[in-house]
């Protein structure tokens, strides 16, 4: 099973959306492997978003991520990157479908509540950036596994 890195951004924490967002991933059947509340250091936020370095919104994006606590998580499951990106919805909330996290909970691209890795490679990179190896519990077998998956 693959892993992905998900972060509830500071707006999601301040708006009290943590439980709602985690509940969506749990109900989908995904497995929680790591979770921590952290105020990001600027260097880590810059590294996290390095693909956007040089773009006009990059400094504001880094400041936004560092402006308060985030909830950093690792989730596991079948096709987890594609599944969670779909659940998160489009980057621009006006284009996020209702039913997605951004489509239900966000209005502004600069305050779009949540981050999710966009490929297996970025997931590996981001998990390494935010978590120590021993903080990620990906080996346990979730009790509902035989009811979530046809072949376990
Ligand atoms: P994501 O993978 O859907 O989060 O989107 P991107 O990787 O393209 O961008 C990273 C984050 O930068 C987004 O989630 C937004 O918070 C922010 N962002 C992207 N494009 C813009 C923009 O044009 N303006 C502003 N203010 N923020 C942006
Ligand atoms: Mg992205």
From TrEMBL:
GO terms for biological process: CTP biosynthetic process; GTP biosynthetic process; UTP biosynthetic process. Its EC number is 2.7.4.6. Keywords: Kinase, Transferase. ATP binds at residues 9, 57, 85, 91, 102, 112. GO terms for molecular function: nucleoside diphosphate kinase activity. It comes from the Eukaryota. Residues 1-138 form the Nucleoside diphosphate kinase-like domain. Belongs to the NDK family. InterPro entries: NDK-like_dom, NDK-like_dom_sf, Nucleoside_diP_kinase. The keyword Plastid does not apply. PANTHER family: NUCLEOSIDE DIPHOSPHATE KINASE. Its cofactor is Mg(2+). The active site is at 115 (pros-phosphohistidine intermediate). This is nucleoside-diphosphate kinase. PROSITE patterns: NDPK_LIKE. It holds the Pfam family NDK. It comes from Porphyridium purpureum. The keyword Kinase applies.
């Amino acid at each position: 099973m693959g892993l992905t890195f998900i972060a509830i951004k500071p707006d999601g924490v301040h708006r009290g959306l943590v439980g709602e967002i985690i509940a969506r991933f749990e109900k989908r059947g995904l497995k929680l492997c790591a979770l921590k509340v952290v105020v990001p250091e600027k260097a880590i936020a810059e590294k996290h978003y390095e693909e956007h370095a040089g773009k006009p919104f990059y400094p504001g994006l880094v400041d936004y991520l560092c402006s308060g606590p985030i909830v950093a998580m690792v989730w596991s499951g079948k096709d987890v990157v594609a599944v969670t990106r779909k659940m998160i919805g489009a980057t621009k909330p006006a284009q996020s479908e209702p039913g997605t996290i951004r489509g239900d909970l966000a209005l502004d691209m600069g305050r779009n509540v949540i981050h999710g890795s966009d490929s297996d490679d970025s997931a590996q990179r981001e998990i390494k950036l935010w978590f120590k190896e021993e903080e990620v519990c990906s080996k346990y077998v979730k009790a509902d596994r035989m009811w979530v998956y046809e072949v376990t």
